[in-house]
Amino acid sequence: MKKILLPLIIVLCIVIGFFAVMGYYAYRHYTDKYVHVEVANCSNAEHIADDVLKDLPTLRKALEIAKKEGRVTLKISVEEFNKMRHLSGYCVEYEGRTYRILLVTP
User: Fold this and answer.
1) Can you give the residue range of the structural domain that contains 92?
2) Which among 20, 43, 92, 105 is least buried, having the fewest CB atoms inside 10 angstroms?
3) Is 96 found in the same domain as 53?
């Protein structure tokens, strides 16, 4: 009985460790979301309204930083990421300049 118990405990620990690591990386994949904003010359840019930016505070912050530095990548929440899906890959006009917005997942 003792000869079987030790290998069984080892296998059980390996299986539990494997699922713990997989769960950790699944959680990280779900929560690690980024927005990349860069100054761009787009002829088809649409004006982004302040009421839209009111619901997207990280995007507003990214636009402000990109206005000064040219480009920025910021981590955003999953909720804000889902609200911004329709903006990914598009150009927007904000305070007289055009920016390209990209959503990034690992």
Assistant:
1) 33-104
2) 43
3) yes
- CATH number of residue 79's parent domain: 3.30.70
Contacts of 96 (CB under 8 A, 6+ apart): none
Q: Where in 1-106 does DSSP place strands (E)?
A: 33-39, 46-47, 71-76, 91-94, 97-104
Residues 9 and 59 in one domain: no
CA–CA dist 101, 40 (Å, integer): 10
* CB crowding 75-92: b at 16 or more within 10 Å, else e: ebeeebbeebeebeeebb
Distance from the first to the final alpha carbon of the chain: 47
Q: Which residue's entry shows tokens 């539990």?
A: 16
pTM over 0.90: no
Gap between the Cα atoms of 77 and 30, Å rounded: 10
How far is it, in rounded angstroms, from Cα 17 to Cα 87?
A: 39
